[in-house]
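Researcher: First entry.
Model:
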Amino acid sequence: MNVLFLCTGNSCRSVLSEGTFNHLAPDGLKAISAGSQPAGKLHPRAVALLHRKGISTEGYYSKSWDALPVTPDIVVTVCGSAAGETCPAYLGPVLRTHWGLDDPGHVDGTDDEIEAAFERTYAIILARTQAFLALPLDELKADRNRFKAELDRIGTLLP
């Protein structure tokens, strides 16, 4: 099963989600990330945070949704609403859900405040990823409506 974490720039939230998911997921589950308008580089604070958590970013780069190496089964948009962002809409026969996250890369403040925003975002991603991985996936694959409801519920979780 392939999970696509999608946002606009593919430099921060979607990359944090991809790294966290792949770090925790068992064999047979894989995350990728992409953006509708990729920034062209990963946010250095996102990369540093993943490394501090012991999560590899080897092979990660900011990429377009037009160049996906696999076809996703599930698409999770991670755009936030605070900045009035418009989330890209992935078309195709996939399960879609929205796990909105405000972009810590756009936080203004002291280094400590910015770092705290990145840690909050990571904590939300971690909680949602753990909830996803706890789902009875084999059961849910046979019931798309229930699967979608569970994915949507996970998108509301906060640590």
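Researcher: Second entry.
Model:
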Amino acid sequence: MSLDLSSNTILEDETVLLRPLLESDVENLLEISMNEPETWEYSLIRANGKENLEKYIQIALNAKANGTEFPFIVFDKKSAKYAGSTRFYDINMQFKTLQLGYTWYGKAFRGTGLNKHCKFLLLQFAFETLGMERVEFRADNTNERSIAAMKSIGCKVEGVLRNHMPTLGSDARRDSIILSILRTEWFDAVKENLKKKL
């Protein structure tokens, strides 16, 4: 199946709802953007402050229009608040691969189990609806919290791309860790193991 980027794809369970990110979502994410700038410590594209948030959303929507990304906004049903954002990117329907990332949540939503619910819904959609063979994850190799979160959902470490990317506001370059889940792994064990953690 192809991913219809114009569709109103909604993924949800009893805890979380993911819907397509819209330009108007600046207002829904502004509180986190204004008050928690450290959220984007490891990001090249930051969403701290209203102007950066507007740019961040516009970049995501432009990539969606080009057919390479599908950004979502994350709504936490328990608190009835918007929690952050995530997206599919580097979508390659011919090769049946994509990356899952650009994920961030406000402080109040970290460590609550929300991320596992989001990842379950996104991985289920990627493997069972889109028919993907591989879902890849990347992170700054020093971002321990992000790496631990990816390992806890069942990602396998593949290696590190050395000196892979620049960092914002510095001459230093970052190493990027690469992790993934394969279609066979999802059906063999990852899906059931992740479901038990929800």
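Model: Note on the second entry: The chain has five helices and eight strands.
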